[in-house]
Amino acid sequence: MVTVKDGERLDDLLGRPGKIIQSDDVFSFSLDAVLLAEFVWVPIQKGQLVDLCAGTGAIPLFLSYRTKGTITGVEIQSKLVDMANRSMAINRLEERIQVVEDDVKTAANQLGHARYDVVTCNPPYFLANDTSLRNQNEHHTIARHEVLCTLEDCIKTASQLVKPGGKVAFVHRPERLLDILTLMRAYRIEPKRMQLVYPKAGREANTLLIEGSKDGKAGLKILPPLVVYEEDDTYTETMRAILDA
């Protein structure tokens, strides 16, 4: 019997049949996790995947609906690791998904170099010295700000983990696009696919999805824009299709 502890709750997975343990004390998953899990290429029948900065395990859970491969999440906060692995047990996925407690900066030492088909990451979005949106809650601060790992740490480790020809995908903010492209190439991940996400038509993009291939050939495809909401705040047809997949 899996225990849901005091202060925790069981939330739905936005159209999927599973559940996830979450708490107001830690950062809850957002649409970013859904979008990244849907965007990235995955091997359908088998393969090994890693999700860096896994939090409470939302991206591994969403990926499990698209692939029968094994998924390892990497998360530095022990509280979140415990919550994530209990969620896997609730969904009877503990044989396919495990979340390990480790530092992204050194994760390849434990998990192994050039072993994985796919690496995903929803890293902290804000620089460590950006105090404008910093939260007093330590768990929220670690999830949102580069206090324990930087964008470069995430890209470097992803490059270490993935096989030649394997895929690496990130969700981030559009304003970091040049940093992301520069770092991906510096660590031999050639950008191959990119999509911008807009909250509504006519608004500025607020989310960036990007995928690269380790030691891949040059050539970046820009996918059609993804708009999340109609003017009446209902999901667009494209977004509903993603949530109902």
From TrEMBL:
InterPro entries: SAM-dependent_MTases_sf, Small_mtfrase_dom, tRNA_Adenine-N(6)_MTase. Pfam families: MTS (PF05175). Gene3D superfamilies: Vaccinia Virus protein VP39. Coiled coil: none annotated. It comes from the Bacteria. Residues 35-132 form the Methyltransferase small domain. PANTHER family: TRNA1(VAL) (ADENINE(37)-N6)-METHYLTRANSFERASE (PTHR47739). This is tRNA1(Val) (Adenine(37)-N6)-methyltransferase. It comes from Exiguobacterium marinum.
